[in-house]
Amino acid sequence: MKHLVGGISSAGRALPEIDGYTPVIEKAAGAWLWDQRGQRYLDTALGFGATLLGHNPPSVVDAVRQTQQDMLMPAFPHALEEEAAARLSDLTGELDKVIFVNSGSEAVHLAARAARAATGRRLVVKFAAGYDGWFDNVAFGNAGSAPAEMPGTARPEKEGMLLLRYNDFQDVDALFAAYRDIAAIIVEPVMANAGCIEPAAGYLQYLAERAHQAGALVILDEVLMGFRLHAGLAGHLLGVDADFATVGKAIGSGTVVAALVGKARHMAVFDDGRAVRAGTYSGNPPVCAAVIATLAELRRQDYRQLLARGDALRQRVTAECRARGVALSSSGYGTVFTLWPRASAPEDYPQALAAADKQWSLDLHIALRRRLILTMPFVFGRFYLSFSHDQQSVDLLAAACGASIMAL
Which PROSITE patterns match (predicted)? Predict the structure, then answer.
């Protein structure tokens, strides 16, 4: 590609060349992708989690197409905004005030702005190795960076953003003992971009309680995990009392939409002038139509069946590899998980960093791609399943994973 920088618009989309060829996708439907040669692949990346229903769900496509015929982008309020907000708030509990934006990064940025305005404080805290968007301050301390390792006692800080060790109860206490100006904690229910590291029992609840005791607010970053475990927020399933949540990806079936939801008393900062928000394309009619149609579909889906199907896949592949003397473990959930070339899954970022094997991850991607399965080719990569992944496609994936891993 001569004109597109790097051949991609987002760095995560890069695929390695195999035998002189790199696929360029031309069509997507359900659990499948087709490249420019007409070759079909089983997809496990699913728009980095954005297509939970599967690619191009007909009801969503129809809703978007009809709305595009009616209106694309009026400058003034339109009826679909309130309807989409109402459908979303029905599923987010006390977080029943909604602002639509265009990306998860924007939603997190808006949440931090709201928390600072509501508390009058400066500092916001995120997990070391967590991913909360690509804007400068929150991109600080991402997985693979030097600050994320937090080797000493000093706590890294950049532009009012502090880092916190995930699953470390003592570090929570140390944080609040040392700082009195914390506006909010950004809480990821699962450390997805560090390899789907699961929360320790009671950790997220403890963190939220300590934050509230200190006068700080709690922001659930659910751009990735929201609506992936049930038709609602993962943090609510895990017992987290949050003040805000950011959602995206799964709520729009691949359309360009995200949202900030929050408790009314905190979202009031946008009404009384303490915080500003804007965005020409935020909440435009086609994406609101997509949200309405997507949420209606998600409410009808059998989450238990999909989660069980994914967990059975993980267990099957792990058991087959171990039976042949190949160390393998898995972290995450049935709809999003990471495979590790070691006997036990990491429980925190230092363990994940020690377990990470870039060459193994790349070799697995290549082996699966030769079997016509597309995966994330990088370390800490995730496997996603959608409601379009039926038992036959899951069995195909399980067999391919087992054979590929044992051949590495």
Answer: AA_TRANSFER_CLASS_3 (PS00600)
C-beta of residue 30 within 8 angstroms of C-beta of residue 393: no
Distance from C-alpha of 383 to C-alpha of 371, rounded to nearest angstrom:
16
End-to-end CA distance of the chain: 32
The model's pTM is 0.96
pLDDT tens profile 189-208: 999 999 999 999 999 999 99
DSSP 155: P
214-272 pLDDT, tens digit each: 999 999 999 999 999 999 999 999 999 999 999 999 999 999 999 999 999 999 999 99
Could you tell me the CA-to-CA distances from 32 to 47, 54, 367 in Å, in that order? 12, 8, 18
Cα-to-chain-centroid distance, residue 363:
24
d(CA 283, CA 64): 13
Domains of the chain are 21-53+302-406 (3.90.1150.10), 58-299 (3.40.640.10)
Is the CA virtual torsion 313, 236, 284, 71 positive or negative? positive
